[in-house]
Amino acid sequence: FVWVYTIMVIAARKKKMLEGRQAIQAGRINWWPCAIVLFVLFSAIRDVYLGGVFQKFSYFEVVALTSALCTLYFAAVVILRQPRQWLELRRNWRDALWINLATAAAWLSYFHALKNIEPSIASTLYVGVGPFTIIFLRILGIHISSPAPIRAAEKWFGGGILASLLLLAGVELAGLSGLKTSGAAESLFSLALAFLGGVFLALYNLISKRMNENGVSPEAILSVRFIAIATVSFAAILGGGTGKSGLHSHGALAFVSLVLVLLIIAPNYLFQVGIAHTPPLTTNVIRATGPILVFIIQIFEGRVLHSTYTLFCIILYSAFVVLSNLSRSWREAPPKG
Protein backbone atom coordinates (compact mmCIF):
# COMPACT_ATOMS: atom_id res chain seq x y z
CA PHE A 1 0.00 0.00 0.00
CA VAL A 2 2.89 2.36 0.74
CA TRP A 3 4.43 2.05 -2.70
CA VAL A 4 1.04 2.29 -4.42
CA TYR A 5 0.38 5.52 -2.48
CA THR A 6 3.84 6.80 -3.44
CA ILE A 7 3.16 6.09 -7.10
CA MET A 8 -0.13 7.96 -6.98
CA VAL A 9 1.51 10.97 -5.29
CA ILE A 10 4.16 11.08 -8.01
CA ALA A 11 1.53 10.75 -10.73
CA ALA A 12 -0.49 13.59 -9.21
CA ARG A 13 2.54 15.88 -9.08
CA LYS A 14 3.39 15.09 -12.70
CA LYS A 15 -0.13 16.05 -13.67
CA LYS A 16 0.10 19.29 -11.71
CA MET A 17 3.35 20.26 -13.37
CA LEU A 18 2.10 19.57 -16.89
CA GLU A 19 -1.38 21.01 -16.75
CA GLY A 20 -0.91 23.97 -14.40
CA ARG A 21 -2.70 25.37 -11.40
CA GLN A 22 -6.15 25.03 -12.95
CA ALA A 23 -5.75 21.27 -13.23
CA ILE A 24 -4.45 21.17 -9.65
CA GLN A 25 -7.53 22.97 -8.33
CA ALA A 26 -9.83 20.70 -10.33
CA GLY A 27 -8.26 17.73 -8.53
CA ARG A 28 -7.52 15.71 -11.65
CA ILE A 29 -4.96 12.93 -11.29
CA ASN A 30 -3.03 11.02 -13.94
CA TRP A 31 -4.31 7.50 -13.44
CA TRP A 32 -2.29 5.96 -16.28
CA PRO A 33 0.47 4.65 -13.98
CA CYS A 34 -2.19 2.38 -12.43
CA ALA A 35 -2.11 0.38 -15.67
CA ILE A 36 1.56 -0.31 -15.02
CA VAL A 37 0.75 -1.30 -11.42
CA LEU A 38 -1.67 -3.94 -12.75
CA PHE A 39 1.00 -5.02 -15.21
CA VAL A 40 3.40 -5.58 -12.29
CA LEU A 41 0.84 -7.74 -10.46
CA PHE A 42 0.10 -9.93 -13.48
CA SER A 43 3.81 -10.18 -14.28
CA ALA A 44 4.62 -11.37 -10.75
CA ILE A 45 2.08 -14.18 -11.10
CA ARG A 46 3.43 -15.03 -14.54
CA ASP A 47 7.08 -15.12 -13.42
CA VAL A 48 6.44 -17.53 -10.55
CA TYR A 49 4.31 -19.68 -12.85
CA LEU A 50 7.04 -19.70 -15.49
CA GLY A 51 9.66 -20.72 -12.93
CA GLY A 52 7.71 -23.93 -12.38
CA VAL A 53 6.76 -24.43 -16.03
CA PHE A 54 10.39 -24.34 -17.19
CA GLN A 55 11.18 -27.29 -14.93
CA LYS A 56 8.93 -29.43 -17.17
CA PHE A 57 9.01 -27.74 -20.56
CA SER A 58 11.75 -26.32 -22.75
CA TYR A 59 11.45 -22.55 -22.78
CA PHE A 60 11.89 -22.57 -26.55
CA GLU A 61 8.74 -24.68 -26.86
CA VAL A 62 6.77 -22.42 -24.55
CA VAL A 63 8.06 -19.17 -26.06
CA ALA A 64 7.49 -20.33 -29.65
CA LEU A 65 3.80 -21.06 -29.15
CA THR A 66 3.12 -18.17 -26.79
CA SER A 67 4.81 -15.50 -28.89
CA ALA A 68 3.19 -16.79 -32.09
CA LEU A 69 -0.29 -16.69 -30.51
CA CYS A 70 0.30 -13.18 -29.12
CA THR A 71 1.47 -11.96 -32.53
CA LEU A 72 -1.59 -13.39 -34.27
CA TYR A 73 -3.95 -11.90 -31.70
CA PHE A 74 -2.60 -8.35 -31.85
CA ALA A 75 -2.15 -8.48 -35.63
CA ALA A 76 -5.85 -9.36 -35.92
CA VAL A 77 -6.74 -6.45 -33.63
CA VAL A 78 -4.76 -4.02 -35.79
CA ILE A 79 -6.20 -5.38 -39.04
CA LEU A 80 -9.79 -5.18 -37.82
CA ARG A 81 -9.71 -2.01 -35.72
CA GLN A 82 -6.60 0.01 -36.62
CA PRO A 83 -5.65 -0.69 -40.25
CA ARG A 84 -3.97 2.72 -40.62
CA GLN A 85 -1.44 1.69 -37.98
CA TRP A 86 0.36 -0.45 -40.57
CA LEU A 87 1.43 2.81 -42.23
CA GLU A 88 2.77 4.08 -38.91
CA LEU A 89 4.70 0.84 -38.42
CA ARG A 90 6.14 1.19 -41.90
CA ARG A 91 7.32 4.73 -41.11
CA ASN A 92 8.90 3.46 -37.88
CA TRP A 93 10.28 0.21 -39.26
CA ARG A 94 13.74 0.74 -37.76
CA ASP A 95 12.29 1.06 -34.26
CA ALA A 96 10.06 -1.97 -34.93
CA LEU A 97 13.19 -3.95 -35.80
CA TRP A 98 14.98 -2.79 -32.65
CA ILE A 99 12.10 -3.72 -30.34
CA ASN A 100 12.10 -7.20 -31.90
CA LEU A 101 15.80 -7.67 -31.23
CA ALA A 102 15.52 -6.17 -27.73
CA THR A 103 12.55 -8.40 -26.85
CA ALA A 104 14.26 -11.55 -28.10
CA ALA A 105 17.45 -10.78 -26.16
CA ALA A 106 15.56 -9.77 -23.01
CA TRP A 107 13.16 -12.71 -22.89
CA LEU A 108 15.61 -15.48 -23.75
CA SER A 109 18.11 -14.16 -21.22
CA TYR A 110 15.51 -13.74 -18.50
CA PHE A 111 13.81 -17.09 -19.05
CA HIS A 112 17.11 -18.92 -18.69
CA ALA A 113 17.74 -17.10 -15.41
CA LEU A 114 14.19 -17.73 -14.21
CA LYS A 115 14.61 -21.44 -14.78
CA ASN A 116 17.85 -21.78 -12.81
CA ILE A 117 17.80 -19.28 -9.90
CA GLU A 118 15.25 -18.02 -7.37
CA PRO A 119 12.45 -16.20 -9.29
CA SER A 120 12.46 -13.14 -7.01
CA ILE A 121 16.23 -12.72 -7.50
CA ALA A 122 15.94 -13.08 -11.26
CA SER A 123 12.99 -10.66 -11.33
CA THR A 124 14.76 -8.08 -9.17
CA LEU A 125 17.87 -8.05 -11.33
CA TYR A 126 15.78 -8.06 -14.51
CA VAL A 127 13.62 -5.04 -13.66
CA GLY A 128 16.04 -3.40 -11.23
CA VAL A 129 18.70 -2.63 -13.76
CA GLY A 130 16.12 -0.64 -15.79
CA PRO A 131 16.18 2.64 -13.82
CA PHE A 132 19.95 2.39 -13.48
CA THR A 133 20.25 1.88 -17.24
CA ILE A 134 18.16 4.99 -17.93
CA ILE A 135 20.18 7.07 -15.46
CA PHE A 136 23.43 5.80 -16.98
CA LEU A 137 22.24 6.67 -20.50
CA ARG A 138 21.30 10.16 -19.32
CA ILE A 139 24.74 10.65 -17.78
CA LEU A 140 26.21 9.74 -21.18
CA GLY A 141 23.81 12.20 -22.85
CA ILE A 142 21.92 9.47 -24.73
CA HIS A 143 18.15 10.13 -25.00
CA ILE A 144 16.15 7.51 -26.90
CA SER A 145 12.72 8.92 -26.00
CA SER A 146 11.81 12.42 -24.78
CA PRO A 147 14.76 13.58 -22.62
CA ALA A 148 14.30 14.53 -18.97
CA PRO A 149 16.81 16.20 -16.64
CA ILE A 150 18.58 14.05 -14.06
CA ARG A 151 19.08 15.30 -10.51
CA ALA A 152 22.24 14.83 -8.47
CA ALA A 153 20.27 12.89 -5.84
CA GLU A 154 19.12 10.43 -8.52
CA LYS A 155 22.73 9.65 -9.35
CA TRP A 156 23.46 8.80 -5.72
CA PHE A 157 20.33 6.70 -5.34
CA GLY A 158 21.16 5.05 -8.64
CA GLY A 159 24.44 3.96 -7.09
CA GLY A 160 22.47 2.56 -4.15
CA ILE A 161 20.23 0.64 -6.55
CA LEU A 162 23.24 -0.90 -8.24
CA ALA A 163 24.86 -1.76 -4.89
CA SER A 164 21.71 -3.52 -3.66
CA LEU A 165 21.51 -5.51 -6.90
CA LEU A 166 25.13 -6.61 -6.55
CA LEU A 167 24.45 -7.59 -2.93
CA LEU A 168 21.48 -9.66 -4.06
CA ALA A 169 23.67 -11.37 -6.65
CA GLY A 170 26.13 -12.13 -3.84
CA VAL A 171 23.33 -13.86 -1.90
CA GLU A 172 22.78 -16.18 -4.86
CA LEU A 173 26.50 -16.89 -5.35
CA ALA A 174 26.95 -17.61 -1.63
CA GLY A 175 24.18 -20.21 -1.73
CA LEU A 176 21.95 -18.24 0.66
CA SER A 177 18.92 -17.94 -1.64
CA GLY A 178 15.73 -19.96 -1.33
CA LEU A 179 16.48 -22.16 -4.34
CA LYS A 180 19.60 -24.28 -4.63
CA THR A 181 21.31 -24.32 -8.03
CA SER A 182 23.55 -26.85 -9.70
CA GLY A 183 26.71 -24.87 -8.93
CA ALA A 184 28.40 -21.49 -8.70
CA ALA A 185 29.15 -21.39 -12.43
CA GLU A 186 25.49 -21.86 -13.34
CA SER A 187 24.46 -19.24 -10.77
CA LEU A 188 26.96 -16.72 -12.14
CA PHE A 189 25.86 -17.34 -15.72
CA SER A 190 22.17 -17.00 -14.83
CA LEU A 191 22.81 -13.81 -12.85
CA ALA A 192 24.68 -12.29 -15.80
CA LEU A 193 21.79 -13.16 -18.12
CA ALA A 194 19.27 -11.58 -15.74
CA PHE A 195 21.32 -8.36 -15.72
CA LEU A 196 21.71 -8.42 -19.50
CA GLY A 197 18.03 -9.13 -20.04
CA GLY A 198 17.14 -6.14 -17.87
CA VAL A 199 19.33 -3.82 -19.94
CA PHE A 200 17.62 -4.96 -23.15
CA LEU A 201 14.20 -4.60 -21.50
CA ALA A 202 14.99 -1.00 -20.52
CA LEU A 203 16.01 -0.28 -24.12
CA TYR A 204 12.75 -1.82 -25.34
CA ASN A 205 10.78 0.42 -22.96
CA LEU A 206 12.51 3.54 -24.26
CA ILE A 207 12.15 2.63 -27.93
CA SER A 208 8.49 1.64 -27.60
CA LYS A 209 7.77 4.94 -25.83
CA ARG A 210 9.40 6.76 -28.73
CA MET A 211 7.15 4.82 -31.10
CA ASN A 212 4.13 5.89 -29.03
CA GLU A 213 5.27 9.50 -29.32
CA ASN A 214 5.52 9.03 -33.10
CA GLY A 215 1.90 7.85 -33.35
CA VAL A 216 2.24 4.05 -33.17
CA SER A 217 -0.47 2.46 -31.01
CA PRO A 218 0.25 -0.10 -28.24
CA GLU A 219 -1.60 -2.80 -30.19
CA ALA A 220 0.49 -2.13 -33.29
CA ILE A 221 3.72 -2.40 -31.31
CA LEU A 222 2.64 -5.72 -29.79
CA SER A 223 1.62 -7.05 -33.21
CA VAL A 224 5.26 -6.97 -34.35
CA ARG A 225 7.14 -7.22 -31.04
CA PHE A 226 7.38 -11.02 -30.84
CA ILE A 227 8.24 -11.90 -34.45
CA ALA A 228 12.00 -12.26 -33.88
CA ILE A 229 11.72 -14.30 -30.69
CA ALA A 230 9.12 -16.59 -32.27
CA THR A 231 11.41 -17.14 -35.26
CA VAL A 232 14.42 -17.90 -33.05
CA SER A 233 12.40 -20.29 -30.87
CA PHE A 234 10.92 -22.24 -33.79
CA ALA A 235 14.38 -22.43 -35.38
CA ALA A 236 15.80 -23.84 -32.14
CA ILE A 237 13.04 -26.46 -32.02
CA LEU A 238 13.59 -27.51 -35.63
CA GLY A 239 17.34 -27.64 -35.01
CA GLY A 240 16.89 -29.87 -31.99
CA GLY A 241 18.25 -27.25 -29.59
CA THR A 242 15.34 -27.18 -27.16
CA GLY A 243 17.46 -28.42 -24.25
CA LYS A 244 16.37 -30.69 -21.44
CA SER A 245 12.72 -30.86 -20.46
CA GLY A 246 10.46 -33.24 -18.63
CA LEU A 247 7.99 -35.64 -20.21
CA HIS A 248 4.80 -33.94 -21.29
CA SER A 249 2.01 -34.21 -23.83
CA HIS A 250 1.35 -31.75 -26.62
CA GLY A 251 -2.00 -31.03 -24.96
CA ALA A 252 -0.25 -30.01 -21.74
CA LEU A 253 2.10 -27.74 -23.69
CA ALA A 254 -0.85 -26.15 -25.50
CA PHE A 255 -2.66 -25.53 -22.19
CA VAL A 256 0.41 -23.89 -20.64
CA SER A 257 0.84 -21.74 -23.74
CA LEU A 258 -2.77 -20.56 -23.63
CA VAL A 259 -2.46 -19.65 -19.93
CA LEU A 260 0.71 -17.69 -20.67
CA VAL A 261 -0.96 -15.92 -23.59
CA LEU A 262 -3.57 -14.60 -21.16
CA LEU A 263 -0.83 -13.66 -18.67
CA ILE A 264 1.09 -11.89 -21.43
CA ILE A 265 -1.62 -10.24 -23.53
CA ALA A 266 -3.43 -8.54 -20.64
CA PRO A 267 -0.39 -7.17 -18.76
CA ASN A 268 1.54 -6.21 -21.91
CA TYR A 269 -1.43 -4.29 -23.23
CA LEU A 270 -1.77 -2.51 -19.88
CA PHE A 271 1.95 -1.80 -19.94
CA GLN A 272 1.96 -0.42 -23.49
CA VAL A 273 -1.01 1.83 -22.70
CA GLY A 274 0.62 2.94 -19.44
CA ILE A 275 4.05 3.83 -20.81
CA ALA A 276 2.45 5.96 -23.52
CA HIS A 277 1.41 8.38 -20.75
CA THR A 278 4.09 7.79 -18.10
CA PRO A 279 7.72 9.04 -17.94
CA PRO A 280 10.31 6.26 -18.45
CA LEU A 281 11.86 6.64 -14.99
CA THR A 282 8.47 6.42 -13.26
CA THR A 283 7.62 3.38 -15.37
CA ASN A 284 10.76 1.58 -14.30
CA VAL A 285 10.32 2.53 -10.64
CA ILE A 286 6.81 1.04 -10.62
CA ARG A 287 8.10 -2.11 -12.30
CA ALA A 288 10.91 -2.29 -9.77
CA THR A 289 8.37 -3.03 -7.02
CA GLY A 290 7.39 -6.27 -8.74
CA PRO A 291 10.06 -8.46 -7.08
CA ILE A 292 8.37 -7.97 -3.70
CA LEU A 293 5.21 -9.50 -5.12
CA VAL A 294 7.23 -12.27 -6.77
CA PHE A 295 8.88 -13.06 -3.42
CA ILE A 296 5.51 -13.36 -1.69
CA ILE A 297 3.87 -15.42 -4.45
CA GLN A 298 6.81 -17.84 -4.78
CA ILE A 299 6.52 -18.75 -1.09
CA PHE A 300 2.90 -19.80 -1.61
CA GLU A 301 3.86 -21.66 -4.79
CA GLY A 302 6.00 -23.96 -2.63
CA ARG A 303 8.98 -24.66 -4.87
CA VAL A 304 11.19 -22.00 -3.25
CA LEU A 305 12.10 -21.79 0.43
CA HIS A 306 11.96 -18.55 2.42
CA SER A 307 15.28 -16.68 2.45
CA THR A 308 15.70 -13.75 4.85
CA TYR A 309 18.81 -12.67 2.96
CA THR A 310 16.89 -12.43 -0.32
CA LEU A 311 14.05 -10.49 1.31
CA PHE A 312 16.43 -8.03 2.97
CA CYS A 313 18.18 -7.24 -0.32
CA ILE A 314 14.87 -6.79 -2.16
CA ILE A 315 13.58 -4.41 0.52
CA LEU A 316 16.86 -2.47 0.41
CA TYR A 317 16.63 -2.24 -3.35
CA SER A 318 12.98 -1.10 -3.24
CA ALA A 319 13.85 1.58 -0.69
CA PHE A 320 16.48 3.05 -3.01
CA VAL A 321 14.17 3.16 -6.04
CA VAL A 322 11.36 4.78 -4.07
CA LEU A 323 13.75 7.39 -2.63
CA SER A 324 15.10 8.05 -6.11
CA ASN A 325 11.63 8.68 -7.44
CA LEU A 326 10.63 10.80 -4.45
CA SER A 327 13.74 12.94 -4.86
CA ARG A 328 12.63 13.79 -8.40
CA SER A 329 9.07 14.39 -7.24
CA TRP A 330 10.14 16.82 -4.51
CA ARG A 331 12.40 18.80 -6.84
CA GLU A 332 9.71 19.09 -9.53
CA ALA A 333 6.85 20.04 -7.20
CA PRO A 334 5.47 23.51 -8.09
CA PRO A 335 5.89 26.23 -5.44
CA LYS A 336 2.96 26.93 -3.16
CA GLY A 337 1.19 30.23 -2.90
Explain the overall architecture:
- This protein has 337 residues and is an all-alpha fold.
- 79% of the residues lie in helices and 0% in strands.
- The protein is built from 14 helices and no strands.
- The longest helix has 30 residues, at 184-213.
- 47% of the residues are buried.
Short description:
This protein has 14 helices and no strands.
For the structure shown, list the relevant keywords.
mainly alpha, 0% strand, 337 residues, globular
What is the overall silhouette?
globular
Low-confidence stretches: 1-12, 15-27
Number of helices: 14
Q: What's the average pLDDT?
A: 80
Sheet having the most strands = none
- Compressed to H and E, one letter per element, the order equals HHHHHHHHHHHHHH
How big is the Rg?
20 Å
* Helix-residue proportion: over 70%
The first-to-last residue Cα distance is 30 Å
The total count of strands amounts to 0
Which class best fits the helix and strand makeup? Answer: mainly alpha
**How much beta, percentage-wise?**
under 5%
